[in-house]
Amino acid sequence: MAKCGFQGSSTVNINIDPANAHYKCGHLAMTYTGLCILLILGDDLSRVNRKALIEGVKALQTPEGNFSATLSGCESDMRFVYCAACISYILNDWSGFNVNKATDYILKSISYDNGIAQCPELESHGGTTFCALATLSLTGQLDKLSKDQREGLKRWLVFRQIDGFQGRPNKPVDTCYSFWVGASLKMLDTLQLSNYVQNRQYVFETQDSVVGGFSKWPDTCTDPMHTYLGLAGLSLIGKQMVVYQSPFTVRSTKFFKAKVAMCPLLLKERSNHQHRDILFTHLLYGYGTVAVRMRYGYGMFAYSTVAVRHGYSTDTVRVRYRLRTIRYNFGTVR
């Protein structure tokens, strides 16, 4: 059962040469994504082979404490530690997740500047900092951070804001970090130290009012990933810009409330994790290897209802669209 888990596509189930059979195995991120999609659709997970999935998770943890994505030979880092933690939490079974080893791995990945990297001795990054903090929160190990580590991490995160947020020092701001960094600050009860107005203004500057969506930078093409993470970031700072509701359908929420012991992540009163809402309503797949331009691979975890209100006039929309088209055609897009 070590090969068990969800795959990214049914195409891998085609008949292949036996010599390549080892590629037919579960992928940790796809297992997490698959479970979340089932929950969104109102499934009760009764058809899921829980034991097999947990055995699949267990087989992917390395001696260092992190996790590989697959058994077929793959990188192992903080992204998949987070995915494994979420799978274990959703299934309410930690028998395949060595919490102590994973916690030790996370603590060793804290860099000299107090941010958290993909692996020990690498550069701090906003996305992997989120993965690490979320894992510590899910496993009840957030208090393992010392006071100095916590305060240093808060400082590092706060200093990632320029107007929007950047993922690393000396990098341009990017819509997606409104969530990655914002959620990390939220978990540390420090989001209020950021500038909500500038963050919101930057995210809306990346919005295309003609075709819809948000982009990485202003005046560039929108995409689902940045649209989703832009909305997720806006939901953290609240106000009247984004109306946030549970990502789970009413049906699934009611179902799991009826089955109290099955899925504690849906039951706020039974959760000891302060920021359970942002742990499960946003990230499905951290910094992957199989998606957008082989750089970032995020599973899309949609809100059940997200309403975005903006006040552009018709004339403003026309001007913005024309400027965007001119800049794109002449190669001046950032």
UniProtKB/TrEMBL annotation:
One Pfam family of this chain: Prenyltrans
Family, similarity comment: Belongs to the protein prenyltransferase subunit beta family.
Lineage of producing organism: Eukaryota, Metazoa, Ecdysozoa, Arthropoda, Hexapoda
Boundaries of every Prenyltransferase alpha-alpha toroid domain copy: 3-240
UniProt organism field: Eumeta variegata (Bagworm moth)
Cofactors: Zn(2+)
InterPro entries xrefs: PGGT1B-like (IPR045089), Prenyltrans (IPR001330), Terpenoid_cyclase/PrenylTrfase (IPR008930)
Keyword Nucleus: no
Domain of life (superkingdom): Eukaryota
Name of the featured protein: Geranylgeranyl transferase type-1 subunit beta
GO cellular component: CAAX-protein geranylgeranyltransferase complex
Molecular function terms from GO: CAAX-protein geranylgeranyltransferase activity; metal ion binding
